[in-house]
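A reminder from the course coordinator: this example appears on the midterm review sheet, so study it carefully.

Given structure:
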């Protein structure tokens, strides 16, 4: 059976689900294809995937009717941030009040945000096709055809790849990627804390990598330790009590004794950018378009900003212009390049700067942190960029 749509989104993660919902809200006939079965209501266990959603993106999710569906007990604001260099006196502090902002970000569990996004989709006019993979994609002048493994065929003016860093649809479209492997892993785990975190995010640039503590509701925090393969293996091999002790010591016992809440997990770290974001009848968003180092916590925020730019571009098209018209889609690509390149330069530059072991570089980077901390206008500009 053939099905005709204006737009088909491939990939139902956070970015893909938000993309399908936003486009459906604009009045397009949208289908979302996700190879995994639709998830039910999340259980009570704390998710090991935690995201810091920028205030700008939280406000956008609210316009979709999504953010207000989250239980306030399951998200936590970041009111302050402390960034420590690898010298004792090198530190920069950010405070939402100083920048006249409500907060610097909002911490939410992946599964809870995913669940409310899918609830929104199920209440919308979007057609949800779950539990089936894609088997072929072809493009012609006016439309694209997506064939599913179960034999169904979907036709649309535009296909959107939101299917992750190893995007199948991106490959089908013939778009390559530029990739740099950091030879590092991101180790994640959640902890109870003896001392209240005060809604403060903490980050340390250490000789063994970048350690981040993100506040969770109550006396809990989520850790992301971006570190070498060998050190990641060491952390993953520790018993729960030993892991908690090592993480607490690495953070200078700032939150007192810790208690591990879940088994530590790890994921490889790489910098990856698609050679282009668009081709006729195809657009890339989220990890299909770019992945960056997690030290700035901006990966999913970049993906949401991709969706915002794409929906704005499609809304401004000429009435006779096809959704897959390359001239239209290049407007979206141009709109995203500055943000993408700036975030790539920031995260990759900081990673390389603090990975360098030369004494002069160490002194310079720590001096830079101390200087930036004293320059209120610079700090406010950094906060404005982070809260988009």
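Designed residues:
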């Amino acid at each position: 059976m053939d099905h005709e749509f204006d737009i088909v989104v491939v990939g139902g993660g956070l970015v893909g689900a938000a993309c399908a919902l936003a486009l459906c809200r604009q009045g397009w006939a949208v289908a979302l294809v996700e190879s995994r079965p639709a998830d039910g209501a999340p259980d009570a266990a704390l998710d090991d995937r935690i995201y810091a959603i920028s205030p700008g993106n939280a406000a956008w999710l609210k316009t979709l009717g999504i953010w207000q569906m989250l239980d306030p007990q399951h998200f936590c604001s970041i009111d302050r941030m402390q960034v420590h260099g690898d010298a004792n006196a090198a530190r920069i502090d950010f405070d939402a009040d100083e920048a006249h902002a409500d907060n610097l970000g909002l911490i939410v569990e992946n599964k809870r945000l995913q669940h409310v996004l899918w609830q929104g989709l199920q209440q919308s006019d979007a057609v949800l096709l779950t539990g089936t993979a894609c088997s072929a994609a072809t493009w012609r002048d006016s439309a694209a055809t997506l064939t599913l493994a179960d034999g169904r065929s979907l036709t649309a003016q535009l296909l959107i790849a939101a299917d992750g860093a190893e995007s199948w649809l991106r490959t089908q479209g013939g778009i390559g990627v530029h990739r740099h492997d950091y030879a590092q892993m991101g180790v994640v785990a959640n902890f109870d804390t003896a001392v209240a975190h005060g809604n403060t995010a903490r980050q340390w640039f250490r000789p063994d990598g970048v350690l981040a503590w993100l506040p969770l509701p109550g006396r809990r925090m989520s850790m992301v330790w971006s570190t070498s393969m060998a050190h990641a293996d060491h952390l993953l091999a520790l018993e729960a009590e030993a892991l908690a002790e090592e993480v607490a010591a690495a953070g200078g016992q700032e939150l007192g004794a810790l208690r591990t809440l879940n088994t530590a997990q790890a994921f490889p770290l790489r910098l990856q950018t698609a050679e282009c974001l668009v081709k006729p009848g195809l657009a890339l968003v989220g990890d299909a378009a770019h992945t960056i180092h997690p030290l700035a916590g901006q990966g999913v925020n970049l993906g949401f900003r991709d969706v915002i730019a794409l929906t704005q571009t499609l809304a401004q098209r000429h009435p006779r212009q096809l959704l897959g018209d390359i001239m239209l889609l290049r407007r979206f690509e141009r709109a995203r390049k500055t943000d993408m390149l700036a975030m790539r330069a920031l995260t990759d530059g900081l990673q390389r700067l603090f990975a360098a072991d030369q004494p002069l570089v160490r002194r310079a980077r720590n001096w830079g942190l101390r200087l930036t901390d004293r320059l209120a206008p610079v700090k406010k500009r950094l906060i404005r960029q982070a809260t988009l």
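The chain has two domains: 2-48+113-179+270-351, 67-110+183-269+369-386. The longest helix spans residues 326-355.
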